[in-house]
């Protein structure tokens, strides 16, 4: 499996073409081991699906082979002690290699399989996640999904929802030497920001999160010293806590924006939260198997970012991020722990068996 992982790291999959090459490499690896694969294409991007087992229930293992760009040296994997260094080792070629290896091992013992297992390999998690979305839209959903992102073998069962929005605040222009004759749109934006931060939905919490997050990401306004600006656009990235009502939040934002004359609220992107619960039978079993392998109780946690799990969760599947230990993903010293990758693979094999 580590040889497979090293081969994957050597494939420079930071472009659509590169990610497709990595996916075709996976297809070939699986086919050489007698596994039937289906490769789908959506706008030049490839996805792979393979299935073993039978029955009504289906567990999905999802992994992405695309990576963020790295420096040339990162495409030659290097082992030091337990760590394998290289771009995409942690995020998430180790997860993919473990899933492929576990899938292959289980394919040799169909009589022992607990249920159907589908392997989904996708090529654009780091950019827009269209390929996982496409698979879900094509009906490749299941009862439970494991996205093998690096989580130190902790079970990331929730993820915050996303609302990204712009507010266009209007003022009234005047000469900069007579600001009292105008209305300064930038000052309106500052007022808006202050009032936004005191809205009650920003104090929500649940057992995994202390509060939502709000990032003022962009401000566009002002042209010259001697003019009172008549327009200011502020752009926010709001991540709300699972369990919060997204439409209710948007309603509150609309009400606030309406307090500012002629302002406009534009919702640019939304994504639902992942709300998998600790009592979900899959979570109970994964926690049980994991604790057997790591020799201590499994940890459940809530992710701050959102990965491909959300597309499946939207269709009602339980979905988690769960994978090996590593560090510095998207950084210069990205690495994964070899033993934790082996453990992750062994956990997957156990989960597949009766
Ligand atoms: Zn990732």
Keyword list:
354 residues; binds zinc ion; 6-stranded mixed sheet; 4-stranded antiparallel sheet; Aminopeptidase; single chain; Alpha-Beta Plaits; 2 domains; alpha+beta
Strand order of the largest sheet: 1-2-6-3-7-15
Oligomerization state:
single chain
Helix content: 25-40%
User: What would the CATH topology of the largest domain be?
Assistant: Aminopeptidase
CATH class of the largest domain: Alpha Beta
Number of self-contained structural domains? 2
Count of individual beta strands: 17
Structural class: alpha+beta
Percentage of β-strand residues: 25-35%
Number of discrete helical segments: 9
Q: Indicate the mean pLDDT.
A: 96
Structural overview:
Helix 3 runs parallel beside helix 9 (338-352). The chain has two domains: 2-159 and 274-352, 3-Layer(aba) Sandwich (Aminopeptidase), CATH 3.40.630; 161-271, Alpha-Beta Plaits, CATH 3.30.70.360. It has helices spanning 2-10, 16-32, 89-107, 130-137, 185-197, 246-258, 281-294, 309-314, 338-352; strands at residues 37-42, 45-52, 58-64, 78-80, 83-85, 116-122, 144-147, 155-159, 161-170, 213-221, 231-240, 264-271, 274-275, 300-303, 318-321, 326-327, 335-337. With 354 residues, the chain is an alpha+beta fold. The strands form four sheets. Strands 1-2-6-3-7-15 form a six-stranded mixed sheet, sandwiched between helices. A four-stranded antiparallel sheet has the order 4-5-17-16. A four-stranded antiparallel sheet has the order 10-11-9-12. The protein has nine helices and 17 strands. The radius of gyration is 24 Å and the shape is elongated. It starts with a helix and ends with a helix. Zinc ion is lined by residues 64, 91-92, 125, 149, 307.
């Amino acid at each position: 499996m580590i040889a497979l992982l090293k081969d994957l790291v050597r494939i420079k999959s930071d472009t659509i073409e590169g990610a497709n090459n990595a996916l075709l490499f996976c297809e070939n690896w699986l086919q050489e081991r007698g596994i039937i694969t289906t490769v789908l294409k959506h706008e030049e991007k490839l996805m792979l699906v393979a299935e073993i087992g039978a029955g009504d229930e289906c567990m999905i293992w999802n992994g992405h082979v695309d990576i963020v760009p790295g420096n040339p040296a990162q495409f030659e994997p290097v082992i030091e002690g337990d760590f394998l260094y290289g771009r995409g080792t942690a995020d998430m070629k180790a997860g993919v290699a473990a899933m492929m290896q576990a899938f292959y091992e289980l394919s040799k013992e169909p009589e022992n399989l607990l249920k159907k297992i589908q392997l989904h390999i996708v090529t654009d998690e780091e950019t827009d996640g269209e390929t996982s979305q496409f698979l879900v839209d094509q009906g490749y959903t299941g009862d439970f999904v494991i996205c093998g992102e690096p989580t130190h073998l902790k079970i990331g069962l929730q993820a915050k929802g996303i609302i990204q929005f712009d507010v266009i605040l209007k003022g009234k222009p005047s000469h900069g030497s007579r600001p009292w004759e105008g209305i300064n749109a930038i000052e309106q934006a500052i007022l808006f920001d202050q009032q936004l931060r005191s809205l009650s939905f920003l104090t929500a919490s649940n057992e995994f999160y202390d509060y939502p997050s709000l990032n003022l990401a962009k401000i566009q306004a002002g042209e010259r010293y001697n003019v009172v600006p008549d327009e200011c656009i502020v752009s926010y990235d709001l991540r709300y806590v699972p369990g919060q009502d997204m439409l209710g939040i948007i309603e509150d934002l609309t009400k606030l924006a309406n307090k500012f004359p002629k302002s406009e609220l534009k919702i640019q992107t939304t994504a639902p939260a992942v709300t998998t619960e600790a009592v979900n039978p899959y979570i109970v079993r994964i926690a049980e198997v994991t604790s057997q392998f790591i020799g201590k109780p499994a940890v459940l946690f809530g992710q701050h970012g959102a990965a491909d799990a959300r597309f499946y969760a939207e269709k009602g599947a339980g979905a988690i991020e769960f994978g090996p230990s590593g560090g510095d993903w998207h950084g210069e010293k990205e690495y994964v722990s070899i033993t934790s990758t082996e453990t992750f693979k062994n956990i997957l094999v156990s989960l597949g068996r009766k």
